[in-house]
Amino acid sequence: MTLERDFDQRLLEKGISRRDFMKYCGFLTATMGLASSFVPRVAEVFAAPKQRPPVIWLHFAECTGCSEAVLRSMYPWIDELVLEVLSIEYHETIMAAAGHQAEDNLRMATKKYEGEFICVVEGAISTKDNGVYGKIGGRTFLEIADDVCRKAKAVIALGTCAAYGGVQAAKPNPGGYKGVGDALGISVVNIPGCPPNPINLVGTIANYLLLGKLPAVDDIGRPLFAYGTSIHDQCPRRSHYEHDEFVEEFGSEEAKQGFCLYKMGCKGPDTYNNCPIAKFNDGTSWPVEAGHPCIGCSEPDFWDKMSPFFEASE
Amino acid sequence: MGKRITIDPITRIEGHLRIEVEVSGGKVVNAWSSGQMFRGLEIILQGRDPRDAPLFTQRSCGVCTYTHYLASIRAVENAVGVQIPDNARIIRNLLHGAQFQHDHIVHFYHLHALDWVDVVSALKADPKKTSALADQVSEAPWGGTAYFTQVQQRIKTFVDSGQLGPFANAYWGHPAYKLPPEGNLMAAAHYLEALRLQAKTARMHAVFGAKNPHLQTLVVGGVTCAKDLTPDRIGEFLFLWKETQDFVRKVYLPDILAVASFYKDWGGIGGTTNFLAWGDLPLSANEPESLFLPRGIIMNRDLKGVKMAEESKVTEHVAHSWYEGKADLHPHEGETKPRHGDYDTAGRYSWLKAPRYEGQSCEVGPLARVLVAYARGKKEIRKVVNDTISKLGIPVTALFSTLGRTAARALETVVIGDAMEGWIMELVGNLKKGKGDTYAPWTVPKSGMGVGLNDVARGSLGHWIQIEDKKIKNYQYVVPSTWNLGPRCANGKLGPVEESLIGTPVADPKRPLEILRTVHSFDPCIACAVHVIDPDSNQVYKVKVL
Question: Could you tell me which of A12, A126, A219, B485 has the fewest CB atoms within 10 Å of its CB?
C-alpha cells in the first residue's frame, strides 16, 4: 500500500491523474494484445518494480535516432524509465562515464549480470574485413556484440538497423553491415522502424517484466502485438482507397482533403506496423496523417525493396 | 615527451569518437581527434532516384534529425531549379527553429552538463538553500523547499539502490567541479525537467512533420502537410513553442549564466582561431541576403574583418585520414580512395577528412554563428551577447573559449526561439489572405547539379548532388563535425578540436574531466562526419558541381 501511495503521489506531482495513468496502462495492455485483466498488473510494473532489471544498451552503426525516439517516451517518462523502472548499465549517449571507465562499466555489468541482463542493440554490425569499419575502445562492433549479446538473457534489436542492417546495409552495402541476429546467428526480438515507436519497446519490456518472457513474434522476429497488421489495413484513409480517391500531386486539392497516398508511392499495403493506431510523439501524428507516403521503414531491406519511394508499388 | 591519455569512447555524443592527448606539466601539449566509424551513405546513394536522397541522408543522424533532410532537399531543389512557396519556406524555418531549440537544450542538460555538475554532491545540498538559490538565479516554474527535497530524495533512493546505471563510475568528486552542493542540486533538478520538456519540444516536429526523430513532410518542391495548416494544428505548435521558449528564457539561459559564474576561468580555455558560418533561416526567397543567421568568415579572431564566406574556397585534405589521394582539393573535384590502416597519430588516424577554408581550419557551430552575426552588427545577437558579458563581467574576448562556445549555444537559442513567434504569425497571415500553397510542381531534369549550404545546430553543412540520366551520379556532404573534429591537414595544421585542447589543464590524467568539457562544448556528432567510399573497389570519386 505504501508503494501505491508513493506512486499516486508521484503521479500527482507530475500533474498526471491516476485515471490518466490507468488509461495509458489500458492502452499499453491493449497494444500488447493482453486481456484487460492485466491492466492493474501493467500499472504495477511501472509503478514500483521490485528490482530494476539491468539493461546493457549497445550502439553500433546507427544514427542514435532510436535512442532519441525512446527519449520521447512520455508514459512512462524517460527519467522514470532510467531512474525507477530499468537499470541502464551502459548507454553511450546518456552515461556520465567516458573512456576506460565507461568500458569498465560494460565489462563489470556483463560479468555481474551474466545471463540476467536485457541487451538492447541499436545499429548494424559491420561484418566485412573482420569488421574494421566500426570500433569502440579498440574493439570492433562484431567483437563487442559477440562478447556481450551471448551473455544476455534476451537480446532486443531496436530499430531497422539492428534488426535487419538498415540504411548502411542498402546496396552495395560497403561495410558489409548486418542486423545483430544475422551477424551473430542468434535469436533476437526485432523492433524495427526508422525509428521504431518507443511504445513498442516499452510494450516489449512490460511484457518481459510482467510475464517473465518476451512477446510472441512473427517469422522475422517482430512482436505480433505491434507488427501483426498492415499499415493499409489500419489506415484512416483506407476508405478513399476503396473509393478510388487518390492524391496525384502534393499540395493539390486532393492532398488537402486527405485522399489516399497510394499513387504517390505509399508502401502501407506492404508494411506491418501499428503507426496509424499508436502514432508518434504522444499520439501527435504519423507520416500519412502529415500527407507523406509511408516508406515501409519497418520492413527488412526497405531501402532497396521499397524505393524509389515516390513511385507507386506494382 | 608527456604522458599520452586516450579517451575512447567519448560518451554523451552521437557516434563513435576517440580523443588522444599528450599531457606535460599538467597541461595538454598535443591532441588527436579520430572518427571511428565508416557507414557508406554517399556511395549507397549513387544510381538512386534524386527524390529519395533526403530520406537516405536524413539517416545520417537521428539527433539533428531534420538537418540533413533539409540540406538534401535544398541541394536537389537547387539542381532541379524549383522555387518553393512562401508557406513551405516558413514551415521549414519553424521546423528548423524547433530543431535548434531541441538540440541545444538536450546538448546542454543531457550531454554537457555532467561535465560541470557533480550529481553526487547534490546529495549534500540543503533543499531550503537550494530553493533560495533557484529563486535568485532563475524564474523556473518549479521550485521551493518541498520540490528540491523531493528531487534530492529521488536521487538518494536511486543512489541507495546501488544500481547507479548511467551515472556509475563517472568523475564525481573531481577537484575541477566547482559548483556548491546547492548549485548541483538545482542543476540536477533541471536536468530531469529538461528530459520531460524535450519530449514536448520534439512534438513541434510531429505537428507538421509526422514524427520526431526522422520527420516525413519535406518533398522536393515544398512540404506535404497541407492538411495540417489548420487553426488547431497551428495552435498546438504555438503552445509547444511557448512552453519551450519559456524554458529557454527562464531556465536554460539563467542556468548557463549561473554555472558560468563558477567557471569564468574557462573563458580563457579551449578557444580556436577562425570561424565559418554559411548562415540559415531565409526570411525571403532572396539568399544569402535574407538569412536570419548571416553568412560570413572570420579569420584570426578579427571580428572587424568579417567577410562573406564563399563555398569555392573550401578544400579537403586527406594526409592524415584513412584515404589515399592528393591533398588540398575542392570537395567537388576531390579524388578519394579509402585505405584503412593502423591507428597512427604520426600518420593516418581518422575516418574523417580535414576540411579547410583558404587553407585554414575553421570552427563552425553556435560560436561561429554568434561571432559572425555579432561582427555583422545583427542587433538581436549584439544585445544578448552584450547583456551576457556585462552580467558575467568578462571581456568579449572571453567568447573565444569553451565557456564562450557553451554560452553562444544558449544565446542563439534565445534569439532563434524569439523569432519563431513572428514566423508562426506570418504563416497565419498568409492563410488568412487565402494563400494556402505548400508545394510547387517540377520535373527531374535529365542532368543537373545542385548545392545546399546550410547552418544547423552543430554548424555549417553543405550537400552537393550531381544528377545524370535522372539518377544520382554523385553525392557529397561536408558536415559540421568534419570541420570541427577533423584531423590534421597536409600542412600539419591541427583541426579545431585538436587546437582547442592545447593548453587545457588536466588535474588528474586518470580522470580527464577537463578534456571532456572542451570536446563536448563542440557537440560532436560523428555518424555523419565520415566520408564515404567503397573500400573494396577503391573507387575514385570525381565530382564537379559548380
Answer: A219
Task: Give the pTM.
Answer: 0.93
Point out which residues pair with B7 in neighbouring strands.
B19
CA distances from B290 to A265, B286, B295, B335, B456 (A): 35, 6, 10, 35, 17
Whether B458 is catalytic is: yes
Report in angstroms the alpha-carbon separations of A131 from A183, A184, B39, B340, B351.
11, 12, 11, 11, 14
Rounded distance between C-alpha atoms, residue B7 and residue B303, angstroms: 34
- C-alpha–C-alpha distance, residues A111 and A277, integer Å: 40
pLDDT at residue B270, rounded to an integer: 97
Active-site annotation holds for B64:
yes
* Cβ-defined contact of A65 to B536 (cutoff 8 Å): no
| Whether B350 is catalytic | no
The DSSP element (H or E) to which B357 belongs, if any, is strand B354-357
One-letter amino acid at B279 equals: G
Kindly give, in sequence order, each residue whose CB lies less than 8 Å from that of residue B62, ignoring residues fewer than 6 positions away. Answer: A62, A63, A64, A65, A66, A67, A68, A69, A195, B14, B213, B214
Q: Provide the pLDDT for residue B540.
A: 29
What is the residue-averaged pLDDT of chain A?
Answer: 89
Candidates B461, B491, B455, B458; CA nearest to B354 is B491
**Distance from B60 to chain A by nearest Cα, in Å?**
6
Residue A234 shares a structural domain with residue A100? no
List all residues of chain A from 89 to 118 with a beta carbon under 8 Å from chain B: 89-99, 101-105
Asked about B525 being catalytic, the answer comes back as yes
- Residue A22 belongs to a domain: no
Q: Within an 8 Å CB–CB cutoff, is residue A174 touching chain B?
A: yes
The strand pair at B17-24 and B27-35 is best described as antiparallel
B362 in active site: no
User: Which residue of chain A has the CA closest to B88?
Assistant: A251
Catalytic residue among B18, B68, B369, B488: B68
Tell whether A200 and A127 lie within a shared domain.
yes
Residue A156 within a domain = yes
CATH code of residue A199: 3.40.50.700
**Segment B457-489, tens digit of pLDDT:** 999 999 989 999 999 998 888 889 999 999 999
Q: From the first residue on, what is the mean pLDDT of each consecutive set of 10 residues in chain A (314 residues)?
A: 55 59 66 65 62 92 93 88 90 89 93 96 92 83 96 97 96 93 97 97 89 92 97 98 98 97 98 97 97 98 97 86
Which chain B residue has its CA at the smallest distance from A50's CA? B161
pLDDT in tens, B186-198: 999 999 999 999 9
Question: Which residue out of B147, B216, B438 would a mutagenesis test of the A interface target, given it has the greatest number of A Cβ atoms within 10 Å?
Answer: B216
B195 with A78: Cβ contact below 8 A: yes
Q: What residues contact residue B99 under an 8 Å CB cut-off, 6+ apart?
A: B64, B65, B66, B67, B205, B456, B457
Minimal Cβ distance to B163: which of A52, A62, A282:
A52
The residue in chain B having the minimum alpha-carbon distance to the alpha carbon of residue A56 is: B165
Q: Give the chain B residue whose CA is nearest to the CA of A132.
A: B340
